[in-house]
């Protein structure tokens, strides 16, 4: 078993392991220390009766061979000078308990444990998000069955998932909103996919609210972009009676604000995705190159900025092996954003953010319109 003698360091004495010794000499100017095979040799070194190993030159080391403190203890708090080689230089930022603790490696071990814990938490979070994605897909499939059958057993099965769905929705916004594929986007006004908008200057909204969740396209500064809020809704989401709408908000009384009924399957996730499709299409027609898009759907943001890359590589399959329910919707959005630079911002829904509240009202109004 090795022993480490510290002649000059934060805590002079003999240590039985390297981390403790390292904590006493690391970042200590001109520390003097050495490894020995026996404890007796280590104490002889500390007391100055053997040769030294030091970070300073040998002449300076020899001047420090004088008094020896008791093991794992310190002398008084006077300044650390060559005439008092065993006075530890007190680190002003260290707690008193660490200053007197014999375990000199406490701080470094604690940091290592914290880093390991952080890595474990990050891995757990990634697994949890993957589980939420899988659960969302399973609920999507159940909703599809319910949508087509409208039977009492299907409604009962859907109701059985309600508690889990509501809990996850509170925690992860729209991860568990019931979505579904089917139906390409046709503009509710023209029916040809072209959004009738006027080419005029777009009013600026405050882009500072929300959490930056990344870019598609080339990053840009906020002052170079135009802000828009989008939202989607579906009343009786997942049932045959569902009615979905989209809302796009460019500013107060702006002529391009949109409130439309969602064609195709009436699900919340589809409404969120196609609200973004609508806004991006408007921006392209208006000649906007850099768009700051705010949405309260984390499902939408993660889908277009992260998950879609793996979906494409895996043939549009989930990690569980199931199909990506909203494939056609995300393919439409992926096609629409080409040639655009978009900063995706996540905002909390229903918490008083003006743009989000306005987009929500537009989406709810759109859901009340007839299907075209």
Would you kindly provide a written description of the structure presented here, covering whatever features stand out?
The protein is α+β, with helices and mostly antiparallel strands and 372 residues long. It has helices at 18-25, 39-47, 58-62, 96-100, 106-149, 152-160, 162-172, 268-285, 298-313, 327-336, 354-367, and strands spanning 3-8, 13-15, 32-36, 211-216, 226-235, 243-249, 258-261, 290-295, 341-346. A six-stranded mixed sheet has the order 4-9-8-5-6-7. Strands 2-1-3 form a three-stranded antiparallel sheet, sandwiched between helices. Strand 5 and strand 6 (243-249) form a beta hairpin. Helix 5 (106-149) packs antiparallel against helix 6 and helix 8 runs parallel beside helix 10 (327-336). The protein starts with a strand and ends in a 5-residue tail after the last helix. The model is unreliable at 52-106 and 147-208 (pLDDT under 50).
């Amino acid at each position: 078993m090795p022993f480490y003698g510290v002649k000059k360091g934060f805590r002079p004495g003999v240590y039985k392991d390297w981390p403790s010794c390292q904590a006493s000499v690391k970042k200590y100017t001109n520390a003097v220390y050495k490894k020995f095979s026996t404890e007796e040799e280590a104490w002889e070194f500390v007391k100055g009766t053997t040769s030294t190993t030091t970070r300073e030159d040998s002449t300076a080391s020899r001047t420090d061979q004088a008094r020896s403190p008791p093991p794992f203890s310190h002398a008084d708090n006077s300044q650390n000078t060559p005439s008092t080689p065993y006075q530890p230089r007190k680190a002003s930022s260290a707690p008193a308990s660490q200053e007197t603790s014999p375990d000199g490696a406490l701080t470094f071990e604690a940091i290592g444990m914290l880093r390991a814990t952080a890595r474990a938490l990050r891995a757990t979070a990634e697994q949890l998000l993957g589980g939420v994605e899988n659960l969302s897909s399973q609920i999507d499939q159940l909703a599809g069955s319910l949508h087509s059958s409208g039977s009492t057993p299907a409604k009962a099965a859907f109701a059985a998932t309600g508690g889990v769905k509501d809990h996850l929705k509170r925690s992860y916004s729209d991860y568990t909103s019931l979505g579904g594929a089917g139906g390409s986007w046709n503009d509710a006004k023209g029916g040809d996919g072209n959004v009738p908008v006027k080419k005029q200057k777009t009013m600026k909204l405050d882009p500072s609210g929300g959490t930056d969740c990344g870019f598609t396209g080339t990053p840009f500064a906020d002052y170079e972009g135009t802000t828009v809020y989008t939202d989607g809704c579906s009343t009786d989401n997942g049932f045959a009676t569902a009615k979905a709408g989209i809302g796009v908000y460019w500013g107060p009384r702006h002529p391009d604000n949109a409130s439309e009924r969602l064609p195709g399957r009436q699900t919340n996730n589809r409404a969120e995705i196609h609200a973004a499709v609508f806004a991006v299409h408007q921006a392209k027609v208006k000649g906007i190159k850099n768009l700051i898009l705010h949405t309260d759907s984390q499902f939408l943001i993660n889908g277009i900025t992260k998950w879609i890359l793996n979906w494409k590589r895996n043939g549009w399959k989930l990690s569980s092996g199931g199909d990506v329910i909203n494939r056609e919707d995300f393919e439409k959005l992926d096609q629409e954003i080409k040639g655009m630079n978009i900063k995706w911002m996540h905002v909390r829904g229903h918490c008083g953010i003006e743009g989000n509240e306005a987009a929500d009202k537009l989406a709810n109004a759109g859901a009340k319109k007839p299907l075209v």
